[in-house]
């Protein structure tokens, strides 16, 4: 007689062992390992890894790939505009008209969504979250911050376009006949659209995103760091470099526009007050002094 295996004490019976699929002629189901790199961080614990993941080499101060590509785009565009100004003006005018006609709805929708989001942040409990640590306090007073917003931000544009904007829209409106009561009303509406709540909502969104992740989470002060919760570790690679290149090119041309307007205003003002001549040479000297 074969020897029976000892039965365990108690009435529970032998422990049940799970049957493997291979014993029934099947194959093991193996779950594919999830690619962690493709998932975006969604919790505060994962967000806390951002500074370390975005600062692989703390000694590297310049991203030379971003710098080289952005510099090439800026120089190429600038040379094209300087060597063939008529062609550049015609091309940019055509592109602007196409964007206004085909993508105007997208701009209006985007601004509307941004205004709603910024108002929600301001009026909800999220608006009480500090951009820095909980114990931090503003470095400057409210009046000082407001003064810096205008002096280092939109001050030049508002000084120039607050007058020329309504007049231009009144004389040559985008739609309808100019120099009418309706054109005057539309001119004020367009001016407020550019420099009213809509513009400040866009500035607020970018400022909140960069300030929150830079000063509260210790991430680099860049657009790619602000998009870390959406893109995860992918912001360290080519996607992040592309974001920085687009940001750098847009920033340089934006600052160049403001500087160009400001220099022209200075040149005209100095000509009226001190009798200085107006011309490209004087404008170039003023740009050099400012830089």
Automatic annotation (TrEMBL):
Ranges for region Disordered: 1-35
Keyword entries, A-Z: Cell membrane, Membrane, Transmembrane, Transmembrane helix, Transport
Give residue spans, biased composition: Basic and acidic residues: 20-35
Which ranges does the record mark as transmembrane? 64-83, 103-122, 142-163, 197-215, 243-276
- State the membrane topology: Multi-pass membrane protein
Q: Which GO terms describe its cellular component?
A: plasma membrane
Gene Ontology molecular function: transmembrane transporter activity
> Where in the cell?
Cell membrane
Membership in a protein family: Belongs to the BCCT transporter (TC 2.A.15) family.
Q: What is this protein called?
A: High-affinity choline transport protein
What gene makes this protein?
betT_2
